[in-house]
Design goal:
2 domains, globular, two-stranded antiparallel ribbon
Length: 234
């Protein structure tokens, strides 16, 4: 059994391990460049924090699994010798990964190709965002499509993986492009990408916590959106 970083390298077959801090510090362009590798790591190993990779004892690989009561447990790795243990019995490096991940949702189980289903699901999630904003703010600027796209994209990424979330986002924008125009489509795609990044960066947040984070970060993400649109010539 190897130390945690060596173990990650062995299982992933690469010397690059993406931590939550690495992803948080990436620009939008950097995230796009590494998106496939990050998606693979998230689906197969998990995303550790930097301090998880420093000085941890031996580890045991743990797959995602579902308990008999239906609770989904996400514990990709743990320290076998670390005495720290949380209430769920996960020790060491995996102690900061929540069990029963609140972003997981049975609504996302149908086939990806059931396009009418996911179009209806989009409408349902839009209502969730609207209800949340009504309870949190009366600022009209926050009722744009920005948070809606970010939230839906984050949930797709968490439940279907980054690649499939990107596919669904592209598909939605393809259908809407003739109605909304190229500029609106580009804005939506930037917001979709922000959502995918948040799915990784804040993977332990519940759905309401994710929405609250997106609300708090609206100004910062709006500035990023405007910079990227300027770079695209709009």
């Amino acid at each position: 059994m190897a130390k945690l970083k060596e173990f990650f390298n062995h299982v992933s077959g690469t010397s690059r391990i993406y931590t939550a801090e690495d992803i948080g510090e990436m620009s939008g362009d950097e995230f796009s460049e590494h998106e496939k590798a990050i998606d693979y790591q998230m689906g197969n190993l998990g995303i550790p924090r930097r301090n998880d990779l420093a000085g941890n004892p031996d580890v045991v690989y743990v797959q995602d699994y579902v308990r008999s009561d239906g609770t989904q447990v996400k514990a990709h790795y743990r320290s076998s010798d670390n005495s720290f243990q949380n209430a769920s019995g996960i020790t060491g490096a995996a102690a900061n990964i929540s069990t029963g991940n609140n972003l997981k949702d049975k609504d996302f189980t149908p086939s990806l190709w059931n396009i009418p289903y996911y179009q209806n699901l989009n409408n349902k999630l839009e209502h969730e965002v609207g209800d949340f904003l009504n309870s949190k703010t009366n600022n009209p600027k926050l009722y744009s499509n920005d948070i809606r796209h970010q939230y839906v994209s984050a949930l797709y990424a968490k439940n279907k993986g980054i690649g499939k979330a990107k596919f669904l986002g592209n598909l939605n924008e393809f259908f809407d492009a003739n109605q909304s125009g190229r500029e609106d489509t580009e804005v939506d795609q930037i917001n979709n990408q922000i959502g995918r990044e948040y799915a990784i960066r804040y993977s332990n947040l519940s759905k309401s916590e994710l929405l609250n984070k997106l609300l708090l970060d609206w100004d910062m993400n709006k500035q990023r959106q405007q910079r990227q649109m300027k770079n695209k010539g709009f």
